[in-house]
C-alpha cells in the first residue's frame, strides 16, 4: 500500500473506503510493475501518483460502450492504459530508490558516472 485512506482523502479523493482499497491496490500493482518493486518507502511523488491512478481506475471502472437517449459513448481501454502509463511516467521520472531511478529498465546502471 502506497497511499492510506486518510492521505487519499487529504488529496481530495471522494471514494468510500472499500472502493478506495480496491482501486489503490490496482494502482499500487501498476506502480510496482513499472518500478520493478524498487519502492521501499513511498515518497510524495509515489503517493500522488497512486492517488491519480486510483482516481483513474475509479473513473474508468465502467470502461466499455453504452447508449442513453440516442447518445452512444465508447471508452477505449487502450486509451486508459496509455493515460495510466503517462501518469506513472510524469510522476515518477527522476525519482530514485537506493540511487537507482524508479523507472530504470536497463541491464547495467552505474550511479556515480
Fold and architecture overview:
The protein has about 110 residues and is mainly alpha-helical. The chain has one domain (about 5-95). It has helices at about 5-10, 15-35, 45-60, 75-90; strands at about 65-70, 70-75, 95, 100. It has a two-stranded antiparallel ribbon with strand order 1-2.
What's the gyration radius in Å?
A: 16 Å
By DSSP (H or I, 4+ residues per run), the number of helices equals 4
Q: Looking at the structure, what is the overall shape?
A: globular
Portion of residues in beta strands equals 5-15%
Which regions are unreliable across 5 or more consecutive residues at pLDDT < 50?
A: none
Give the neighbour order of strands across the main sheet.
1-2
Major β-sheet, in short? 2 strands, antiparallel
Number of domains: 1
Distance between the termini: 33 Å
Structural class: mainly alpha
SSE topology string: HHHEEHEE
Give the rounded overall mean pLDDT.
Answer: 87
Oligomerization state = single chain
